[in-house]
Amino acid sequence: MRALLQRVRRASVLVDGDNLSSIAGGLLILIGVEEADTVEDCDWLSTKTANLRIFDDENGVMNKSIVDVGGDAIVVSQFTLHAHTKKGNRPSYIKAAPPELAEPLYQTFSKMLKNKILGNVRLGKFGAHMMVELVNDGPVTIWIDTKNKE
Q1: Is 80 a catalytic residue?
Q2: Is pTM beyond 0.90 here?
């Protein structure tokens, strides 16, 4: 399971021109599920995300987590995080999980994250064409892959 975390001042997800989800501040989390992922990956990644100290403390040092600041999150499924670009010019998504596996794990990750943070956890719409708008704060962007825990 891969995640791209972006610390944001605000973020929103639009589907067919309608605002599906929005937050005033916190994390925009893009999640890519691969075929080998399990509920254990969801647990590890949600814990890591909740506790990652990427928010500023009173001295302007990144020393607080989303839990510490009471921030919100938007979780958006994005299979393209598993793009394989080594060969040719068209990315391959062969490692990306099929929807029947990916969607339940996306939902599980989101529920686990909600149980770990104080703020709201909003969702994108799985499988939909979405417009994601954000104002990256910092910018702070962190890449996490559960297959590289060490």
Answers
A1: yes
A2: yes
